[in-house]
Design brief:
Shape: globular
Largest sheet: 3 strands, antiparallel
Order of helices and strands: HEEHHEHHH
Radius of gyration: 25 Å
Structural class: mainly alpha
Number of helices: 6
């Protein structure tokens, strides 16, 4: 019998590391999203049970009120009358976030996208299951702050998550963990230390201070 030749291929430990990291990111993202969905469903259920439509319950005078309304539009009652379009957009947002979550390497990006995902799912549940019909259900809103339109927990999560992502992008904290712009400069400043005036110390200045003028 001829000897059977078997190529021994050493396992790639980096693949396991990437797979484990992706699973942790996905679990964390889902944990954040499910927390938002849970709070959203709980508060909406209480609002429907305890509040009368159109009757305001003052929490902090006229500044903060509980006011039950049914919203056929987007967050903060915008785009009313386009419920089915908003439902499709929400579905696309959910699919895209879940599809690309494995590329995330920043905990802050995971938090922000998890909030957006949870908020999108929370309002999508209303649009699918509430009256008047599937994909055209009206979202339950119940919080009114000053002149701001009535909103709910899902709306707040979407807006706060989006603001967080915009701030991270503006500062240079990228979704894959890399840093550019202000974030990169700030990181180098922390690593290299600063001069007595609080500025970053360049490599040439550090060489001059240590007396090492050699270059690679």
């Amino acid at each position: 019998m001829d000897d059977e030749v078997v190529d021994d291929v050493a396992p790639d430990p980096s693949a396991d590391t990437r797979g484990g990291r992706s699973r942790r990111v996905m679990l964390t993202l889902l944990a954040v999203a499910l927390t938002v969905v849970g709070l959203d469903l709980l508060t909406k259920t209480l609002a429907v049970e305890l509040l009368e439509p159109g009757v305001a319950v003052q929490v902090i005078g006229d500044n903060v009120e509980l006011w039950l309304v049914r919203n056929s539009g987007a967050a903060f009652s915008m785009a009313s009358g386009y419920t089915w379009i908003l439902s499709i957009i929400a579905l696309v947002v959910v699919v895209v976030i879940v599809r690309y979550s494995g590329r995330l390497r920043s905990a802050w990006w995971v938090l922000g996208l998890g909030m957006v995902l949870g908020g999108a799912i929370g309002n999508l549940i209303d649009r699918i299951f509430r009256a008047p019909q599937p994909l055209q259900g009206h979202v339950v809103d119940f919080v009114k702050v000053g002149w701001w339109p009535v909103f709910n927990v899902a709306d707040s999560a979407v807006v706060c998550g989006a603001i967080l992502l915009v701030v991270l992008s503006a500062l240079g904290y990228d979704y894959d963990g890399t840093r550019t712009g202000w974030a990169a400069r700030h990181s180098r400043g922390d690593e290299n230390g600063g001069d007595e005036n609080g500025g970053d110390v360049s490599p040439s200045e550090k060489d001059a201070q240590t007396g090492d003028g050699s270059h690679a």
